[in-house]
Amino acid sequence: MPRAGLSEDRVVEEAEFLADEGSPVTLVELARRLGVQVPSLYKHVAGADALQQLVSVRAKGELADVLARATVGKAGPDAVAALAIAYRDWAIAHPGRYATTLRAPDESDPADVAASSRAIQVMFDALAGYGLVDEDAIDATRIFRATLHGFVTLDAAGAFALPDLDRSFARLVAMLQHSLANWGALTI
């Protein structure tokens, strides 16, 4: 019988806390934090890999929700700025969960596919304000994510020791906006 108050959601939530604290997300540490024995966790999750997948799917869904809320009613440059700020803020606030959002969805997991698709659709919708669709939207989304990921990752690692990080981030957003507005002028 599962322990009272312990559920799949509670187990995954504690794993999220562990991840964001920078602690290893192991079943041993999770059981310790929850005050149970490791075998008790198997009543709620199928194992370490399944737990990682559940954390990833929830993180992707949460990030999609955050991005969608940030861009409601916005288009073009305003949508891109809101998207970039929301992405950065969420990634910095949730570093462990953010790391789980980086891999492509597991095509055998409908929940993973759905959560990933929602996040990408928010980006596609923001880019549509620049007239970017199909292959252009895919390219722009990859560039947008790669640029933001680079900034967020370097920031989290403490690599930006020089002053006024927010000014640099604002310039990064302005650079993205300018590039997107002039997409047709880019040649490859």
Brief summary of the model shown:
The chain is built from 9 helices and no strands. It is 71% helix and 0% strand.
Description of the structure:
By secondary structure, the protein is mainly α. 71% of the residues lie in helices and 0% in strands. The protein has helices at 8-21, 27-34, 38-41, 48-71, 76-93, 95-100, 110-128, 134-156, 165-181. Helix 7 packs across helix 8 (134-156) and helix 8 (134-156) packs antiparallel against helix 9. The protein starts with 7 loop residues before the first helix and ends in a 7-residue tail after the last helix. The mean pLDDT is 92.
What gross morphology would you assign?
Answer: elongated
Euclidean distance between termini CA atoms: 61 Å
Structural class: mainly alpha
> DSSP strand (E) fraction?
under 5%
Total strands: 0
Q: What number of domains?
A: 2
The name CATH uses for the topology of the largest domain is Tetracycline Repressor, domain 2
Q: Compute the average pLDDT.
A: 92
The whole-angstrom Rg is 19 Å
Q: Which labels suit this protein?
A:
single chain; 188 residues; mainly alpha; Arc Repressor Mutant, subunit A; Tetracycline Repressor, domain 2; 9 helices
Write the layout of secondary structure elements.
Elements: H1 8-21, H2 27-34, H3 38-41, H4 48-71, H5 76-93, H6 95-100, H7 110-128, H8 134-156, H9 165-181
